[in-house]
Design goal:
Largest sheet: 9 strands, mixed
Strand content: 15-25%
Shape: globular
CATH topology: Rossmann fold
Helix content: 25-40%
Strand order of the largest sheet: 4-1-5-6-13-12-11-8-9
Number of strands: 13
Order of helices and strands: EEEHEHEHEHEHEHEEEEEHH
CATH class: Alpha Beta
Distance between the termini: 12 Å
Radius of gyration: 19 Å
Structural class: alpha/beta
Number of helices: 8
C-alpha cells in the first residue's frame, strides 16, 4: 500500500469556446498552473469539475492545499458593491460562486492557500476587500496590462519591480527586498480586506503580495504570475516550494502514523 500523493485542488474556469455560431461550454485549467504545482510544488494537481459550494467541506477533506489561478475573466464587481464598468471584459460568475466561498473555508480550516492574479483578487474580495476595475485609469497608477499584441515571452517578461516588507517571506524567497516581476492584469486591489497584510507593493503603491494574518499555515497571494516557467526562476520556484511543503505538512496531519503503518506492514511480509 502506497501513501496517496500530496494533492492540490485547482478550481477551473467556465468558458465558451469555439466559433461565435458554434460555441460550447468548457471547463478550463491553464497548463502552466498545473505544471507549476507538479514540478515546483512537488504535488499532484487535482480537479473537481462542476464542484459546488455545498461540496466544499467534503472536497477539502480530500486535498492538501488549494491554488486559485489566474484567468482571462474578472471577479464580478457586484461582489464588492460596484457595477460593471466595461461590458466587453469577460466574467465568470460560476467560478466566483465557488472560489469566494472556498477562500473562506480554506482560512477557517487552515488549508494551505496560494492565490495568483485573479486568485489574488478573489481572496481579497472574499474577505471583504474591493478592486479597481481599470487600474490604468486610476490617477497615479501604472498600466499593469501585458503588451498586446506580443508573444508569450514578451507578455510574461519582467515588467516592474515589487518592493517587499523587510524580513517578510517574500523577501526571503526572493533573496532581496526588491524583485522584478511580470504584469498581466487590468484589475487590482483598491481596498485591502481586513485580516490581510500587504507584503509587497509596485512602484505606484499598488498591492502586489499579501498574507492572510494568523492563518496558521501557508496563506499567501501575488498579483503577478510566478507559475510562468517557475523552474527557471529561483524566486518563483521558492514560492511553490514553500507552498508544496505546507501541503505535505497537511498531508502528514491527515494521515497520522501512515509511514509507521507502512513500515509495520512491510516488516510482516
Amino acid at each position: 500500500m502506497k501513501k496517496p500523493p500530496c494533492m492540490v485542488w485547482l478550481p477551473m474556469d467556465h468558458r465558451l469556446l469555439g466559433d461565435h455560431d458554434h460555441q460550447m461550454p468548457f471547463l478550463v485549467l491553464g497548463d502552466k498552473y498545473a505544471r507549476a504545482v507538479k514540478v515546483c510544488g512537488q504535488a499532484q494537481p487535482v480537479l473537481f469539475p462542476l464542484a459546488d459550494v455545498q461540496q466544499i467541506p467534503e472536497l477539502l477533506n480530500l486535498v492538501d492545499g488549494v491554488m486559485l489561478t489566474g484567468s482571462p475573466s474578472n471577479v464580478h464587481p457586484s461582489h464588492f458593491d460596484q457595477t460593471v464598468s466595461d461590458a466587453a471584459l469577460p466574467l465568470d460568475p460560476a467560478r466566483d460562486a465557488l472560489t469566494l466561498a472556498l477562500v473562506k473555508a480554506c482560512v477557517a480550516q487552515q488549508v494551505p492557500l496560494l492565490g495568483v492574479c485573479r486568485g489574488f483578487q478573489e481572496i481579497n474580495v472574499a474577505l471583504g476587500g474591493s478592486l479597481h476595475q481599470r487600474v490604468h485609469q486610476v490617477p497615479g497608477k501604472l498600466d499593469h496590462r501585458e503588451p498586446n499584441p506580443a508573444g508569450m515571452d514578451q507578455q510574461y517578461a519582467p515588467s516592474h519591480a515589487v518592493n517587499f516588507v523587510p524580513g517578510s517571506v517574500f523577501a526571503q524567497w526572493a533573496g532581496s527586498e526588491t524583485a522584478l516581476v511580470n504584469s498581466l492584469h487590468g484589475q487590482g486591489i483598491w481596498r485591502l480586506a481586513q485580516g490581510l497584510r500587504a507584503l509587497g507593493h509596485a512602484p505606484d503603491g499598488l498591492v502586489e503580495a499579501f498574507e492572510v494574518e494568523g492563518a496558521g499555515t501557508f496563506a499567501y497571494a501575488v498579483q503577478w504570475h510566478p507559475e510562468w516557467q517557475c523552474a527557471n526562476n529561483p524566486f518563483y520556484a521558492a514560492i511553490f516550494k514553500a507552498f508544496g511543503q505546507a501541503c505535505r505538512a497537511r498531508q502528514n496531519a491527515r494521515w497520522p502514523g501512515f509511514d509507521h503503518v507502512l513500515h509495520t506492514a512491510a516488516g510482516s511480509i
